[in-house]
Give the backbone structure.
Amino acid sequence: MDKVLVFVEIKGDGPRKVSLELLCEAARFAQNGRFSVEAVCIGRLPDAARDKLLSYTEKLVHFTDPELAVYSPEGYARALAGYAREGGAKMVIAGATGIGRDFLPRVAVLLETGIASDVTGANWLNEPMTFVRPMFGGKVFAEVVFSTSPVILTVRPNSFAMGEAQEKGGEYIEKTAGISPDTIHTKVVRVEEASRDTVDLTEADLIVAGGRGLKAAENFNLIEELAGAIGATVGATRSVVDAKWREQADQIGKSGKTVSPKLYIGAGISGAIHHIMGMDTSKVVLAINRDPNAIIFNYANYGIVGDLFEVLPAMTQELKKRKEG
Amino acid sequence: MDILVLIKQVPDPEALVEIGSEGKDLNIEPKFAINLFDEYAIEEALKIREAHGGKVKAITLGSAKAIEALRTAIAMGADEAMLIEDEGFAAGDGYNTALVLSRALEKEMFDIVLCGRQAIDADRGEVPQMIAQFLGLPHVGVVVKLDIADGKTVAESAFEGAKEVIEVALPAVFTAQKGLNEPRVPLITGVMKAMKVQIPKLTVEDLGLTRDMAGPGGSKTKILQYLPPKKRPAVQFIEGEPAHAAAEAVRILTEVERVI
Ligand SMILES: Cc1cc2nc3c(=O)[nH]c(=O)nc-3n(C[C@H](O)[C@H](O)[C@H](O)COP(=O)(O)OP(=O)(O)OC[C@H]3O[C@@H](n4cnc5c(N)ncnc54)[C@H](O)[C@@H]3O)c2cc1C
Ligand SMILES: Nc1ncnc2c1ncn2[C@@H]1O[C@H](COP(=O)(O)O)[C@@H](O)[C@H]1O
């Protein structure tokens, strides 16, 4: 059987959503008996996260070297590549998160193989396997094959469906990678966590984004209230970030984040290609703009031509009404 | 401080990109620019030189035309430039690009390598980390602040929501993210200088590599075909007074699309 390693990432007390999506997808394509799947966690692993992971995988391997307690690209790459080599893994998959995209390329070099970054689709059962990934900000997609083994992938969050947790728990194995401190040349001095409790844009299922049509920073409360009513994360255009109405971390687009939610609601956004590039893989798009010719309507499933100052509060109110009723 | 900046010439962000010959090629409007994120890298290199002295050298792997990107770097203020001219390797995968560039770096003296976070053509975001691994160097990715003082180098990395402050031993590789600085516009004197300067060219053979290592035969990954993005069906406008349209939108999202 071909061994598949899924790197799982921990955030706070639990595994990241994309890690669970990948374990579920791997379990699905492993059903034909050709693959065996292992989850690999490096560093900090709270009990709650471990228990949750064990209900999504048959085997969880945890690297516990003290040198790996905090993330470093050098340490993580060595640990993951070392384990892949030792077990003859045919595939190493991670979420295309900040960390995944940061260190998986190093894993590829250590294993003298290629990588496909930010994959959004896969034909796992093709011979050879093929992967789809966006280029030019999503203007085109490339279908990629590997001529070397193992296959290394980072996969964009929300590309594969989440499955059900299993009743019976998997096997848990602790290991050390034998990383010596002098192989790591970076030291994390301080981490400033984002001051919010909502899901990061890149992993969010629901996003409400605002543009310059909001006119002022304080009017973003209309966006926040609608987002709050459905548990969505707030996004923004670059114009809004440049005007300092929102933080850089909220920017969606070519020079900001790429998002792939189930629902994207955009209000007061013109739909410049640089913004579209960051959100065009969203599943359902609702655009609110008072200009019937706004470009964003070309990239939307649903459109409301109207004043956002009227439409947004009305939507929030309707949602509240439905919740109560 | 000797600083190397790796820059890539890419199609202009506005250039039209179309799929040609049944998915085998891309037809790209011939307008070019320095990769957006590489401009931040050049600017940071110049700032470090201004504060600490030293030399800034820009390096590109690309076609003969890519020399334009190097001239822009010189016009901005880089001291030297070098073109590794090989279209095959330049069109290859991230591994091959990183292999060539790391071979070139082995021949250079440097304290710092500055790159962009991602090249906006292939959107890979792989090459700098791979170069660091080839050379056994540390890297810090998506950097929004870089401080060098008292023999210490401290970088701020903006991963998604969180910011990490990281101390790193030099030599090291950094990838520049928007927010790091505001790239300067070249002065006319710089442009004049850049037009006249001789830019040395290297071939991959000079780096101990052979041309057949590039292209479909030599790449670790290869593109089978290009596909168009999934087309969204034409927009459905929700009509009526704002309050009515809003209520109807909520109904559609909950009952028809079932996304909330
Ligand atoms: C190299 C480069 C990179 C870039 N990267 C990004 C990026 O990553 N992300 C990004 O977003 N942009 C990016 N941009 C900028 C982009 O080109 C646009 O300028 C920007 O997205 C426009 O933002 P906006 O839609 O908020 O503003 P505008 O274009 O000003 O649009 C405002 C919209 O609001 C509508 N409006 C106004 N009032 C109301 C109202 N009362 N009710 C309803 N609608 C109303 C208007 O009709 C208009 O359509 C980049 C640009 C460049 C050159
Ligand atoms: N052909 C190239 N020549 C010089 N630098 C490159 C080249 N390709 C990539 N780079 C550098 O690596 C960064 C990331 O590129 P990529 O991994 O291709 O997205 C770019 O921003 C450049 O700094």
Notes: Chain B is about 30% helix and 30% strand. Chain B has a mean pLDDT of 95.
